[in-house]
Specification:
By secondary structure, this protein is an alpha/beta fold. 42% of the residues lie in helices and 12% in strands. The strands form three sheets. Strands 8-1-9 form a three-stranded parallel β-sheet, with helices on one face. A three-stranded parallel β-sheet has the order 2-3-4, with helices on one face. Strands 5-6-7 form a three-stranded parallel β-sheet. The two termini are 27 Å apart. The structure holds iron/sulfur cluster.
């Protein structure tokens, strides 16, 4: 796909120039046009449920408002049966996928994760189970004493279908060194996804932006993903199916620490539009409404995004007091958000097959 003025792929310099431009509407039009040309007017959503099985985590990432030290009184662990029950309830209410992630909790043995997947699979044979960030997969590989490949194979056997793409933050060693030094590093994140793709899994890729990285670091992140996706597509097994830019949302309770302010809406829209233009080999860009907010997510559909994620139901990762009071949108609300932009709502399964009654 050729998309810069010389009809070639965008270069890092092209993308930086776009970031520095103040012509937001022209950038949005380019991204929207690219989206319409390659994906048509379809905007996807799914009925899903997020499940956070533990908030206990030993990583202490500076930007995290979700985790608690595993010894903290507010730390929790869901029994595998509870995860399976919640997934079953979601399935009975029409969900096609669950999204299961948690902290890096040293109190949980490897068997806990296999058990959770097996129990969920037993209760819901056809539910798509998207689970574990690359940081969790690296932790599971450590816990099991097996390679990343063998660990992923074990998890697949227990019921895992795909990876949700978290833990990428900003794929820069320098960023990790500064803000999440304990966490699995960018090369480990890339290795987990490359291995999952080689095993035939479809995965997502995220980017946490608006913390303390520079626009140049955001751009580098996109080009790193584009390069891995080129390799995965060439091998012809699994690949990234969507990119999920996630704006940093400051927690209200910073316990005396200072926290960066929330990024401005202009930069959020620029990030989505530039993601659409740079990631010419990843089909879908998500406007993840629990973090963008419903109104900005709707506008993002005219700036290159073509997926609103889903009904979600429970989202503990951001602080609801600051930004998004809602955990849940109904299907009807999502469809209306899309129709108001003059685009076409398409209910999808986890692999982007249409579930519309007439398709
Ligand atoms: S971002 Fe993830 S790995 Fe880091 S502290 Fe929070 S839960 Fe733990």
């Amino acid at each position: 796909m050729k998309i810069n003025r010389n009809n070639q792929r965008l270069t890092i310099q092209d993308a930086l120039t776009l970031y520095q431009s103040n012509d937001l509407l022209q950038l949005g039009q380019r991204a929207h046009h690219r989206q319409l040309t390659h994906q048509g007017k379809n905007v996807y959503y799914c009925v899903n449920r997020h499940i956070n099985y533990t908030n206990g985590c030993r990583m202490k990432c500076h930007f995290c408002g979700f985790s608690r030290d595993p010894d903290h009184p507010d730390s929790y662990i869901m029994p595998p049966e509870t995860v399976a029950d919640q997934a079953e309830k979601a399935w009975q209410n029409g969900a096609s996928e669950v999204h299961i992630v948690g902290g890096i909790n040293p109190g949980l043995p490897y068997d806990y994760y296999l058990n959770m997947l097996q129990k969920t699979r037993l209760k819901c044979p056809k539910l798509y189970i998207k689970a574990f960030t690359a940081a969790e997969i690296v932790d599971l590989s450590d816990k099991s004493g097996q390679s990343i490949k063998n660990t992923l194979e074990n998890l697949q056997e227990a019921g895992l279908n795909g990876l949700p793409g978290g833990g990428a933050e900003i794929l820069s060693d320098d960023f990790f060194e500064r803000f999440c030094p304990n966490k699995a590093r960018p090369n480990q994140w890339l290795n987990v996804h490359a291995t999952a793709h080689a095993l035939g899994m479809m995965t997502n890729a995220t980017m946490l932006y608006g913390y303390q990285e520079t626009p140049a670091e955001r751009i580098e992140h996109l080009f790193t993903l584009r390069k891995l996706q080129d390799c995965s597509l060439q091998k012809g097994r699994g690949a990234f199916q969507s990119f999920v830019p996630l704006p940093y949302i400051p927690p209200t309770d910073t316990a005396g620490k200072t926290s960066p302010k929330k990024i401005d809406a202009i930069s959020e829209l620029k990030t989505i539009a530039i993601s659409r233009l740079v990631l010419d080999n990843i089909p879908h860009i998500k406007a993840f409404w629990p973090m963008l907010g419903e109104k900005l997510a709707q506008i993002a559909l005219c700036f290159g995004a073509n997926d609103l994620d889903g009904t979600v139901q429970t989202y503990k990762i951001v602080d609801k007091k600051t930004d998004n009071p809602n955990d849940v949108l109904t299907e009807q609300q999502i469809r209306e958000m899309i129709l108001e932009t003059n685009l076409t709502p398409v209910k999808r399964d986890a692999l982007y097959h249409s579930l519309e009654p007439n398709d």
